[in-house]
Structure formats: structure tokens, C-alpha cells
Amino acid sequence: MTPEEYQAAVELRAWQQRMQRRPSYFGRLTRRLQQRINGLIPERIHQAITVVIKQMVRGVLFGSTYTTRRPLLDVSFPEREAAVRIRIRYYQTTAATEGALTGAAGFFVGLADFPLLLALKLKLLFDIAALYGHDVKDYTERLYLLHVLQLTFSSQHNRNKVYRRLANWEAYRQTLPPEAVDFNWRTFQQEYRDYIDLAKLAQLLPVIGAAVGAVANYKLIEQLGETAINCYRMRKEL
Question: InterPro entries, alphabetically (predicted)?
């Protein structure tokens, strides 16, 4: 094991412990705060967001919109991780700029941030998968990315369940239907919608929208990137 792999293994073990811990008091408090913010948004907006998420998730499972990067092969582990972190920083800057602009433009323009940010998140995950050498033409690899997305933005209660599936991915993969068309994507998107990005709803509120948009987008991309890194480290079995 190289020094870089050893350090990655140490970070992975710490991350795995966080993924499996019990929901904390602060976590439950944050969840209640998110629910209060959620309640300030009109129901028609929630329905619109649900439709966006549904279509994006369906597109990932059934399409190949984001499969533009070939798997990176025959490179060292440190080179892979360096390339991944460069991509994460690029997407952080892009997402922060987009969030500030849509947040500052008002309520209805702020709504556009949801599909835009979700598209950036998915594109980042596809890039990370390729940089770790995985071919996302395989729909089970695309499904893996959706689980990474859900793991990142779930409550701790749901995170425990999603983590166990990812930790045993190869066994779970064997239970999946051979074609994406047979996958029960509706159940998946409903679970995703229940937990994803509730904190981002604050961006739709007046006055604070621009600041929330820039900072939240930057941190959310950072959080997603770190989760993806550790998920692929876990598959490497460091």
C-alpha cells in the first residue's frame, strides 16, 4: 500500500463511521428546521420540484445524456484522486456562480436553480465515476451514482440504510434486473424527493436568496464530491 493509499484508507474508515452513526440530537434539530423551511414554500412549488427530480432521475436511468467521458484507465491511484479533486473544485465554482445569480434574481428565477444544480451534481458524479475507471454506460453504474447522491443528502436515518446498500453493492447489483426499463425508478425517486436538498429551499426566500445560493451550492458540491470519493474508495477496498 502506497502512502497515498494508506492516507485514503484512514480517511475512508473515519467516513464510514460517520455514515453508520445513530441520528444525533443536532441532526434531529436540523431536520425539524428544514421541515419548517419546507413548510414556507407553496405546495405547487413542491410539486414542480418533484416533477423535475422525477424527470432527471428517469433520464439518468434510461438515457445517456451525461456519458461523455470515457473511463480513465492505466493510471495510478494518486493521479486518479488528484484529477477527481480538480473536477470537484471546478464544479464548486460553477455551482456557486449559478446559485448566486439565480438566488439574486428573485423567487421564480430561483426555481431554476433546482434543475440546474441537480444537473451539475449528476455531471460531476459521471465525471468522478469515469476518473475512477467505471463505465457509466452500464445502467447499474448510473444507479450507483444515484445512490451516492441520495447518501449525500439524506437524513442520518435514511443514510444508514443507503450506506448499507452501497457497502454491499456487488451483492445488491446481482439482484437488479438486467435492463434499466425493468427497474422500479418511481419508488427510488420518491425516496429521493423525501430527503434531498431540503436546506436549499431557503434559497427561494426573499433577501437571503443570493447568499444562500452561492454558499449552499458551493458546500453541497463539496459534500457530494467527498461522498463520491469515499464511495469509490470503498469499492477499491482500501
Answer: EcsC
> What's the pTM value of the predicted model, to 2 decimals?
0.80
Of 103, 184, 98, nearest in space to 146 by CA: 184
Return d(Cα 81, Cα 86) in angstroms, integer. 9
Nearest to 14 by CA among 232, 230, 176: 230
- DSSP track, 31-73: HHHHHHHHHTS-HHHHHHHHHHHHHHHHHHHH--TT--SPPP-
Cell of 116: 440546474
Q: Is 112 helix (H, G, I), strand (E, B) or coil?
A: coil
Instruction: Sort 40 into a burial class: Cβ within 10 Å, 0-12 / 13-18 / 19+.
Output: exposed
Q: Give the distance from CA 169 to its chain's centroid.
A: 17
pLDDT by residue (tens digit) across 55-107?
777 776 666 555 567 899 889 999 999 999 999 999 999 988 877 666 544 44
| Side-chain half-sphere exposure of 162, counting CA atoms within 13 A | 25
